């Protein structure tokens, strides 16, 4: 922030190859809290569903990047397949928001989530 950064992307880009890599959703809240509204925080890595997007937004992300699902759609049916995947994920996001009682993105708060620890 002090060096003029406008935003950052929380990513494990390739970290899935490491058994001990920390997940992006696990570190996102600490990063978002540390920078506050000074810069835009976005996330990639592991975003596959509308529920994943809702979790990311609730934990502080202002945007998400979709990689693998869109590439799969592209491989199946070209641009139309990629567009269909994005439309499906956005429909799932809208549905998930409704299940949580969130009418707008501004209604998505951390309090909608519950972290469960397993022994």
TrEMBL record:
PROSITE patterns reported for this sequence: FMN_HYDROXY_ACID_DH_2
UniProt keyword DNA repair, yes or no: no
InterPro entries, A to Z: Aldolase_TIM, FMN-dep_DH, FMN_HAD
Residue intervals of the FMN hydroxy acid dehydrogenase domain: 1-118
Keyword Ligase: no
Molecular function terms, GO-annotated: oxidoreductase activity
Protein name, UniProt field: FMN hydroxy acid dehydrogenase domain-containing protein
Lineage: Eukaryota, Metazoa, Ecdysozoa, Arthropoda, Hexapoda
